[in-house]
Write a structure and sequence with these properties.
The protein is an alpha/beta fold and 220 residues long. It has one domain (2-6, 18-144, 186-219): Rossmann fold (3-Layer(aba) Sandwich), CATH 3.40.50. It is 47% helix and 22% strand. Strands 3-2-1-4-5-7-6 form a 7-stranded mixed β-sheet, sandwiched between helices. Strand 4 (104-110), helix 5 and strand 5 (130-140) form a beta-alpha-beta unit. It is globular and about 45 Å long. The mean pLDDT is 92. Bound molecules: S-adenosylmethionine (SAM).
Length: 220
Amino acid sequence: MFASIARRYDLLNRVLSLGLDGRWREEAARAVFGGGAKRVLDVATGTADLALALKRHRPDAEIVGVDFVEAMLEIGRHKARRRGVTLRLEQGDGLDLPYRDASFDAVTVAYGLRNFADVDRGLREFYRVLRPGGRVVVLEFPPPPKGMLGAPFRFYFLRVLPRVGGLISGQESAYSYLPDSVLKFPPPAELARRLGAAGFTEVHYKLQTFGVSALHIGVK
Ligand SMILES: C[S@@+](CC[C@H](N)C(=O)[O-])C[C@H]1O[C@@H](n2cnc3c(N)ncnc32)[C@H](O)[C@@H]1O
């Protein structure tokens, strides 16, 4: 699915988030370097927007991005070349990361975890490749709150977004999958609990833009 929308993916992120997605990733990048990381793994890196934000914050840090869709990575490599930035973007599965135990100071994942076939297994893999004291930083779209408060979000997610996404990408199914995956994803408090169950401590989270996006942080 991601291979089929790769070319329009960045444009759609800007349009569908009303230009806010860059700000959410910037906040995640700040959270990573608040922990003094030098070597960072960005899982489900896609077209490398978070990996590039990380590099902007700390040009001397080594940033590795991993994703299993080569078409997304290729766009990321092109963007890195255009900006004269060195990123290592590699093909690999977030559920079975091709890296040694304790080999990164921080692990990030932006809007990728809800696509994992097994979220808890993914969290355990992040824990495995982190060094003790390292941080995990997760950006994800929580399900909209129940009741009236969530009504405008649900309207946007279920009615507007699949149409606009389908029109621009030409792949209607990909953009009806997006709200489906968001509605099935655990709410922030439950994700925090599952980070704890995977072994992380000091787990906390912050809602971004009235809870449209959430930033979770944990420490190994
Ligand atoms: C919504 S995109 C997010 C991309 C990027 N992190 C961003 O912030 O724009 C989700 C990405 O997760 C990747 N993905 C999903 N499951 C994966 C897995 N098990 N291993 C590696 N990548 C995965 C997809 O290929 C896709 O590129």
